[in-house]
Design brief:
mainly alpha, 3 helices, globular
């Protein structure tokens, strides 16, 4: 069985999202860790690419929300850590 390039992109996106979920559920990574956010961001991007190539608006929307949430999580974590760094060194 051979998969097209488009299908491989979708499969890797789905695998990334499932890996992130499983690692977080079994407490192997923290849900608010950079690792978790990054895996989700990559998975979301791959899902959006796959969905756009398949013209599936529903999953384009799903992946876009996933990307926004992951990106927000990364920015929020960076902001929190910056405040902690400033407080420690003043």
């Amino acid at each position: 069985m051979f998969f097209s390039t488009i299908e491989i992109i979708g499969i890797f996106g789905l695998i990334a999202l499932v890996i992130s979920f499983v690692l977080s559920a079994f407490k192997k990574i923290k849900s608010d860790s950079y690792e978790n956010y990054t895996i989700n961001l990559v998975g979301g991007i791959l899902i959006v690419i796959y969905s756009a190539l398949k013209a599936s608006f529903t999953f384009i929307l799903f992946g876009s929300v996933w990307i926004i949430a992951s990106f927000y999580g990364i920015l929020h974590k960076l902001k929190r850590e910056d405040k902690l760094f400033v407080r420690k060194h003043l």
